[in-house]
């Protein structure tokens, strides 16, 4: 085993543009790094920057031996090609797990990704640590984004759930969701999930984050989830709140992935 005492894990964060929600997420990630003793570096680029500027920042962090994780906060401004940028990210530093090779390995049986995307990994951790049985259960995932819907559905399958994916074109989404033992929703539609959508005793994980104006809050807005929380509590056996549910788990998993990456380097 190589000597790793005194070595510090490092995370690089690239933020492009001025989206308030992305700024909040990034601020929270950097703060969590400070609290955990992980060194963080940040590259902030303006909304109108060129694709090459983002690529250059990624490549610089790829080469930096003090950086073990590189994260490009999504979504990127529309003129930038997200796929092209994520493709150049070093596979060994892809702590978000968004590189197509990591995602492909997550999808394929018998293969192991180097990193599992943080929000799905956090959802799974919540289920496991809360003693929720997954194997053989019916799970419904609402939304099919690359960041949450797709990887959480793959992860639940890996844990032997029977998984259905509900999306904007699904007919009778309410009926399908009502059959689920586990519901993971990431639609970004406030109050989409009413009590009538839920089976008695189900477990509901709300990954929805929709910013709504709120002059009384510190940043002028607050985040709301997909689930009608009070209603859902009357039917489900457990419901995660927004904020304070999955969000902190995403950050915790990012720290875990960064630490794992540093351990691979230092032994
Ligand atoms: N945007 C929303 N969630 C995430 C995330 O987990 N990672 C990154 N990089 N961008 C995001």
UniProtKB/TrEMBL annotation:
Query: What catalytic activity does the UniProt entry give for this protein?
Result: (6R)-5,10-methylene-5,6,7,8-tetrahydrofolate + NADP(+) = (6R)-5,10-methenyltetrahydrofolate + NADPH
Q: Which CDD domains match?
A: NAD_bind_m-THF_DH_Cyclohyd
Residue ranges of domain Tetrahydrofolate dehydrogenase/cyclohydrolase NAD(P)-binding in the record: 117-264
User: So which residues are the signal peptide here?
Assistant: none
Q: In which pathway does it act?
A: One-carbon metabolism; tetrahydrofolate interconversion
Cited Pfam families:
THF_DHG_CYH, THF_DHG_CYH_C
Keywords in alphabetical order: Hydrolase, Multifunctional enzyme, NADP, One-carbon metabolism, Oxidoreductase, Photorespiration
**Gene3D superfamilies linked to this entry:** Leucine Dehydrogenase, chain A, domain 1, NAD(P)-binding Rossmann-like Domain
State which residue ranges cross the membrane: none
Its GO biological process terms? one-carbon metabolic process; photorespiration
Tetrahydrofolate dehydrogenase/cyclohydrolase catalytic domain location: 6-96
* GO molecular function terms listed in the Swiss-Prot or TrEMBL record: hydrolase activity; methylenetetrahydrofolate dehydrogenase (NADP+) activity
Family of this protein:
Belongs to the tetrahydrofolate dehydrogenase/cyclohydrolase family.
According to its UniProt entry, what is the function of this protein?
Answer: Catalyzes the oxidation of 5,10-methylenetetrahydrofolate to 5,10-methenyltetrahydrofolate and then the hydrolysis of 5,10-methenyltetrahydrofolate to 10-formyltetrahydrofolate.
Quaternary structure (record): Homodimer.
Which protein, by its recorded name, is this? Amino acid dehydrogenase family protein isoform 5
Q: Which organism is it from?
A: Theobroma cacao (Cacao)
């Amino acid at each position: 085993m190589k000597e790793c005492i005194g070595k510090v894990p490092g995370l690089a964060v690239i933020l492009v543009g001025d989206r308030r929600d992305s700024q909040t997420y990034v601020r929270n990630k950097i703060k969590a790094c400070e609290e955990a003793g992980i060194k963080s570096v940040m590259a902030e680029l303006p909304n109108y920057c060129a694709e090459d500027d983002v690529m250059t920042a990624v490549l610089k962090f790829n080469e930096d031996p003090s950086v073990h994780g590189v994260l490009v906060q999504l979504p990127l401004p529309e003129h930038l090609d997200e796929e092209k940028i994520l493709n150049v990210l070093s596979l060994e530093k892809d702590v978000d797990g968004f590189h197509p090779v990591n995602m492909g390995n997550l999808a394929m049986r018998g293969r192991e990704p180097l990193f599992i995307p943080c929000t799905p990994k956090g959802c799974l951790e919540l289920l496991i640590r809360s003693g929720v049985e997954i194997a053989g259960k019916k799970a419904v995932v609402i939304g099919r984004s690359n960041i949450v819907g797709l990887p959480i559905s793959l992860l639940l399958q890996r844990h032997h759930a029977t998984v259905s994916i509900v999306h904007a074109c699904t007919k009778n989404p309410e009926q399908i969701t009502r059959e689920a033992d586990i519901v993971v929703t990431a639609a970004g539609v406030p109050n989409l999930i009413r009590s009538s959508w839920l089976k008695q005793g189900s477990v509901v994980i709300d990954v929805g984050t929709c910013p709504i104006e709120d002059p009384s809050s510190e940043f002028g807005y607050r985040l709301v989830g997909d689930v009608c929380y009070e209603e859902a509590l009357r039917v489900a056996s457990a419901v995660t709140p927004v904020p304070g549910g999955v969000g902190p788990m995403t950050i915790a998993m990012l720290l875990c992935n960064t630490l794992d990456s540093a351990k691979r380097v230092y032994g």
